[in-house]
Design brief:
The chain has 287 residues and is an alpha/beta fold. The protein is built from ten helices and eleven strands. Helix 2 packs across helix 10. The longest helix has 21 residues. It binds NADPH dihydro-nicotinamide-adenine-dinucleotide phosphate. NADPH dihydro-nicotinamide-adenine-dinucleotide phosphate binds next to helix 10.
Length: 287
């Protein structure tokens, strides 16, 4: 039987409507209108598309979005000065500096300059530390989106063996922390695989849930997936013919998996949704 589709687009619509309702209620109670500041340095076309989509989503749910576009020649000191101004601006609740940055700017210094209270991308070491300690303030957007896709589609996580392929700071590593955490949405047994792992298929075949976060088309083939397993495809790969595909051989794996996320329309829309969620929570006075 073909796999159940874990529809990220549909869940994103539902969760964005929930955030919009939360924003409307916050404002009706006299609270602040949540505001996201986006910062884009340089001309990378993909980054421009990502930031535009994030800003549009913000406006759709009733948040303010303020955009700062800086030339590729911007110095680190200039960027840090802007971030300092945004840190001090009470109308800005979340700050998103789109990565990658030009080579003259140290990414780590920039990530560390964002106020942890406005760190809606959840990259600051304080945010990461709180997550690792089991007391998250903000959860990183892509892993949180994946967790929500599983939870809200009733894919059992507690006690499941999750094999995550990819150990980046953005996806694999924080997702492992979240799924192994004690409590709802967690309690999984997690294995992380990477480019140095031996016999990837032997690992993924043991999984109740396979997460592919690598950036290589057709890395996960049908023989690497146990029949009935859930498969989450984070990869976004642009083929020479212009098509966007994930890391999973979708047509074949969908024939044997129990559930699968499509690309596009799976994890991608959830990432933006969780950014809105974080910005909303950053604006809630209780925090
Ligand atoms: P990185 O390049 O930072 O990490 C890739 C990981 O894959 C690394 O840990 C690497 O191992 C591992 N890897 C590479 N080759 C292999 C292999 N042959 N077998 C097993 N592991 C391998 O990528 P990101 O985590 O940033 O992104 C991964 C993918 O997810 C990309 O396609 C990206 O575009 C997509 N993405 C999608 C998002 C969305 O919203 N849908 C959001 C973020 C990313 P090693 O550490 O040893 O090098």
């Amino acid at each position: 039987m073909p796999a159940r589709i874990l529809d990220g687009k549909a869940l994103a619509d539902t969760m964005q409507a929930e955030t919009a309702a939360g924003v409307a209620e916050l404002v009706a109670r006299g609270g602040p209108k949540p505001g996201l500041a986006t910062v884009l340095v340089g001309e990378d076309p993909a980054s421009h598309v990502y930031v535009r989509n994030k800003r549009r989503a913000c406006e759709r749910v009733g948040m303010t979005s303020v955009h700062h576009e800086l030339p590729a020649t911007t110095s680190q000191a200039e960027l840090l000065a802007l971030i300092n101004r945004l840190n001090a601006d009470p109308s800005v609740h979340g700050i998103l500096v789109q990565l990658p940055l030009p080579p003259q700017i140290d990414e780590r210094a920039v990530i560390q300059s964002v106020s942890p209270l406005k760190d809606v991308d959840a990259f600051h070491p304080e945010t990461v530390g709180l997550l690792a300690a089991g007391h998250p303030r903000f959860r990183p957007c892509t892993p949180h989106g994946i967790q929500q896709l599983l939870v809200r589609n009733n894919v059992p996580i507690a006690g499941a063996h999750v094999v995550i392929v990819g150990r980046s700071n953005i996806v694999g590593k924080p997702l492992a922390l979240m799924l192994m955490q004690k409590g709802p949405g967690g309690d999984a047994t997690v294995t992380i695989a990477h480019s140095r792992s031996r016999d990837l298929g032997a690992l993924t075949r043991q999984a109740d849930i396979v997460v592919a976060a690598v950036g290589r088309p057709i890395l996960i083939t049908a023989d690497m997936v146990r029949p009935g397993a859930a498969v989450v495809d984070v990869g976004m790969n642009r083929l020479p013919d212009g098509r966007l595909v994930g890391d999973v051989d979708y047509a074949a794996v969908a024939q044997i998996a129990g559930a699968i996320t499509p690309v596009p329309g799976g994890v991608g829309p959830m990432t933006i949704t969780m950014l809105l969620h974080n910005t909303f929570h950053a604006a809630c006075p209780a925090r």
